[in-house]
């Protein structure tokens, strides 16, 4: 009974005299000054209110908790603060933000570092967070995620995991931006709210298109520079698929031969069964380095004394590196003869055939000129005076000499 009386006397004294009570201190500086630890146990009370700190109204008597440091001069200096910022105190609409302030130079240096808004948004470096977590920082590296091996950050929509950023699937040293297994969506690199680079589920990559149909699908022009690029060059692959710029003579076009002058009159004075001396036909073709398939078609025409029945000539044309002498060349690697027959009493015949010629010079090296030479052999009762007229002449429109690259 005495304890109860003393308790009420103490409460009465405090409430009427603005007394200060000290626990474990003889010099209280506040209404209640506790020197030591305080335990508040609400497990038997339920609900809220283990420690209740009251405020008044917006702009007045904010509830707060201050944290002080006993400095080296023996003065308690406030260096931390949690304050309740009342937004509304009308019945049923009570609302409050919580502000967290810290300082590096005491009470005068307190500044807000974090705020939890009444709607649950958290602001770090801003008192007005516009989303669940809103960070404002003057630093160039404001956030560091430091976790264990295979660290990653997940992205989910309505509880469905879509993708991640980190090193989830690769080596621990890797950095990945990926989708989870079972997610058939794509990854987009977007600017101005428009996808510019897309990787779809099957691995196809699109640049300028969100729906690539090949491993690399580019909508637009491309620019490839490696120091070998130049005007008129083309992109060529090597045996393992590595591309490089080369001059256009590496990708060769067909080449046409040249026929000029009256051609060659061949065979006069040659008897039957003997091949005539070779004659230069005033025709040639210039071939760049590489392998070529050369096609030739030459019109064979009677001399002023036409052939009659039982008379014929066989025409054979070859290539030489000289227009002075018919000299065999190792550049001819297959074929080598363009041949045909003129049989009396016909006035015209055709010699044709194909030859494979290899200009052995390196790519970009010298072009070589190959000259057309021809000889005839007479059969039957063909006269010694007979000759083929103007073989290789520019007059005959049927004459053709064309080379197709074989690379």
Tally of helical runs: 1
For the report, how would you describe the main beta sheet?
Answer: 10 strands, antiparallel
Q: Which series of helices and strands comes N to C?
A: HEEEEEEEEEEEEEEEEEEEEEEEEEEEEE
Rg measurement, Å: 51 Å
Q: In CATH's first tier, which class of one domain applies?
A: Mainly Beta
Beta-strand content: 35-45%
Could you say which overall geometry the principal axes of the C-alpha atoms support? rod-shaped
Mean pLDDT across the residues is 86
**How many β strands by DSSP?**
29
**Secondary structure: helix percent:** under 10%
User: In the CATH classification, which architecture of one domain applies?
Assistant: Sandwich
Sheet/helix structural class: mainly beta
User: Unreliable stretches, pLDDT < 50, 5 or more residues?
Assistant: 1-16
CATH topology type of one domain = Jelly Rolls
What's the arrangement of secondary structure elements?
Blueprint: H1 2-17, E1 21-23, E2 32-34, E3 64-70, E4 76-88, E5 95-102, E6 111-116, E7 122-124, E8 133-135, E9 152-157, E10 160-166, E11 176-179, E12 187-191, E13 194-199, E14 205-207, E15 216-218, E16 234-237, E17 243-246, E18 255-256, E19 258-259, E20 264-266, E21 279-287, E22 290-301, E23 311-320, E24 332-334, E25 338-343, E26 348-359, E27 368-380, E28 388-391, E29 400-405
């Amino acid at each position: 009974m005495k304890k109860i009386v003393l308790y009420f006397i103490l409460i009465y004294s405090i409430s009427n005299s603005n007394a200060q009570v000290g626990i474990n201190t003889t010099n209280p500086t506040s209404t209640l000054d506790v020197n030591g630890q305080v335990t508040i146990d609400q497990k038997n009370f339920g609900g809220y209110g283990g420690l209740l700190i009251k405020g008044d109204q917006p702009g007045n008597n904010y509830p707060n908790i201050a944290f002080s440091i006993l400095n080296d001069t023996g003065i308690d200096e406030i260096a931390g603060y949690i304050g309740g910022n009342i937004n509304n105190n009308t019945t049923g609409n009570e609302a409050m933000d919580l502000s967290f302030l810290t300082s590096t130079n005491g009470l005068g240096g307190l500044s807000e570092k974090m705020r939890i808004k009444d709607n649950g948004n958290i602001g770090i470096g801003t008192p007005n967070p516009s989303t669940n977590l809103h960070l404002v920082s003057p630093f160039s590296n404001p956030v560091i995620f430091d976790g264990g091996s295979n660290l990653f950050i997940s992205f989910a929509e309505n509880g469905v995991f879509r993708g991640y950023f980190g090193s989830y699937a690769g080596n621990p040293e890797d950095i990945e931006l990926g989708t989870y297994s079972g997610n058939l969506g794509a990854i987009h690199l977007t600017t101005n709210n428009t996808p510019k680079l897309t990787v779809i589920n099957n691995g196809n990559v699109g640049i300028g298109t969100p729906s690539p149909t090949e491993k690399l699908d580019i909508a637009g022009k491309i620019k490839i520079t490696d120091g070998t690029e130049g005007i008129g060059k083309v992109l060529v692959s090597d045996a393992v698929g590595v591309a490089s710029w080369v001059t256009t003579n590496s990708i060769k076009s067909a080449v046409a031969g040249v026929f000029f002058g009256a051609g060659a009159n061949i065979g006069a004075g040659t008897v039957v069964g003997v091949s005539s001396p070779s004659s230069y036909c005033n025709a040639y073709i210039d071939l760049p380095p590489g392998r070529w398939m050369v096609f030739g078609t030459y019109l064979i025409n009677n001399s002023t004394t036409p052939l009659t029945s039982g008379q014929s000539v066989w025409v054979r044309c070859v290539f030489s590196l000289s227009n002075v002498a018919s000299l065999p060349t190792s550049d001819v690697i297959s074929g080598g003869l363009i041949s045909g027959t003129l049989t009396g009493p016909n006035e015209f015949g055709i010699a044709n055939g194909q030859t494979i010629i290899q200009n052995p010079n390196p790519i970009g090296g010298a072009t070589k000129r190959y000259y057309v030479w021809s000889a005839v052999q007479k059969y039957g009762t063909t006269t010694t005076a007979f000759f083929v007229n103007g073989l290789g002449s520019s007059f005959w429109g049927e004459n053709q000499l064309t080379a197709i690259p074989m690379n």
